[in-house]
Each structure stands twice: as structure tokens, then as C-alpha cells.
């Protein structure tokens, strides 16, 4: 299964961002890609002041463009994320489209990025965004896949739920910053892959030093043994990772972590 990790620049021009994404999806198809992944907030600056203004309701401009292109190209598209407007609320939402352009999944970011790192980044998504309430997986010809957004990936319980549903790969549109990125980006993708014995794929926007929120970059694909298959730098780049899904069962046979789980013990009780 060939995956394209599209680390694209994001500007203040929504239409330009959509054109850039579509151009890169077309390029990915010429490289034999099966599943192409865009970054978090691929058509909107990552800024609370922008989310509602750039948002769209069901069937909006960006969604239509990705759906139509997925159908035209016969390509699975994990559409990064965008601000979704619904019932007066704004969600950070990822849409997945199948080879026929059909909507396969919608994931609303469940864990909002509310942090205040001493000496580092402060950002409060909850000032504007509302949380989703779902564990999200979707079906492909390659099997079940998992989907979450950025801060969601820090919560092992969510990743384990996707794994237990059968996810062979967890896709994560994300935008870690220059404080959390160097410390935890690669570490998290390798650890979640090892914990759940599946592939993990994270896709970030390219770094823009002039932006209000500066993304770390470093888009990455990791195999179930924790090996890094590819990793980008900070600049605009599309990477291609060939995922050998047969590795999953092989590694699970060698290290039967999931089989050996003691669910009878995993509950906090009074002593």
C-alpha cells in the first residue's frame, strides 16, 4: 500500500491552498499512490481567529474539491483537516474519501489542543473549537484504517481502540509546534506503532516562520517494529512510503502483545 505524505505550505488564501492540495494529489497519483494524506488545517491558517471565518458546512468548497478529485483519480484521500461549521459550532474535522469519491469517514478532533508550556507555546483551541466524540476507523481494500487529529494522538487509549477495531495504519493529520515537535513528534509515532503493532503516518504543514502558529513539519511514516520508513524536514515536500501490511501479523506473532493483554487487571481499584 503506497501512501503519499503531502507536507504542503498553507497560506492565508483558502482557494490557493485548495489548488495546491489538488495539484499535489494529482502528482501523487502519477507516483502510484493508493492513499494520499494532507496536513491538519490544510486550507486554513492554524489560528483561532481564522477557524470560523474559513469554516464550511457539509458539502463545502474544500470537501467538494477533494471528493471530486478522489473520484477522478481513483485515489483514497485523507483530507487533512479543516474547520467544519455545524449548528453554530466549529470543529477541527478530517474527511476521508474513497476511490469513487464517496465519503468514507469524518473525524472531529476529540482532544482539543489547550496547552500552556512554560517557556514555550501557549494555544487554546477550546476558545473557538468544540470537541468531537468518536473513535474513527474506515474500511479500504487493504483493510481497516484508523484516523485521528494531532493532539488526539497523545492519548494511547484512542490509538488502542482503533487498533482493537483492526486498524492496520493510523493516519494523523497534525501540526505539532517547535516546542512539542522536537521533543515528542518522532517519539510518539514510533511508540504508538510499537504499542499497537501497526503502521503510523503523521502529516504536517510545511513550516512557515512568518505564521502566527509555526508548524514543526517532519511528516513521518513508521512501521510496526518502530522503524522510521521516511521523515521530512521542515520544508514543502511529498514523501512516499510503501507499507508492507504483512509485517503486522508477522510482528504480532513474534511479540504477542495484543494477545497477552491482561484486561482483568487494567482497572484502578482501591487497595
Describe the protein:
With 271 residues, the chain is of the alpha/beta class. It has 6 helices and 15 strands. It has helices spanning 14-30, 48-54, 61-73, 156-164, 180-196, 246-254, and strands spanning 2-7, 35-37, 76-78, 82-86, 89-97, 103-108, 114-116, 122-124, 136-140, 143-147, 169-173, 199-203, 220-222, 228-231, 237-242. The strands form 3 sheets. Strands 1, 2, 3, 4, 5, 6 and 15 form a 7-stranded mixed sheet that branches. Strands 9-10-11-12-13-14 form a 6-stranded mixed sheet, covered by helices on one side. A two-stranded antiparallel ribbon has the order 7-8. Helix 5 (180-196) links the parallel strand 11 (169-173) and strand 12. The chain is globular and about 50 Å long. The termini are far apart. The mean pLDDT is 96.
Q: What's the average pLDDT?
A: 96
Give me the secondary-structure category: alpha/beta
DSSP helical segment count? 6
Major sheet characteristics: 7 strands, mixed
Catalogue the unreliable spans: none
Shape: globular
Question: Span between N and C termini?
Answer: 48 Å
Which range does the strand content fall in? 25-35%
N to C succession of SSEs: EHEHHEEEEEEEEHEHEEEEH
**How many strands?**
15
Tell me the radius of gyration.
Answer: 18 Å
Helical coverage, percent range: 25-40%
How are the secondary structure elements laid out?
Elements lengths: L1 E6 L6 H17 L4 E3 L10 H7 L6 H13 L2 E3 L3 E5 L2 E9 L5 E6 L5 E3 L5 E3 L11 E5 L2 E5 L8 H9 L4 E5 L6 H17 L2 E5 L16 E3 L5 E4 L5 E6 L3 H9 L17
Parallel strand pairs: 1-2, 2-3, 10-11, 11-12
Antiparallel strand pairs: 1-15, 3-5, 4-5, 5-6, 7-8, 9-10, 12-13, 13-14
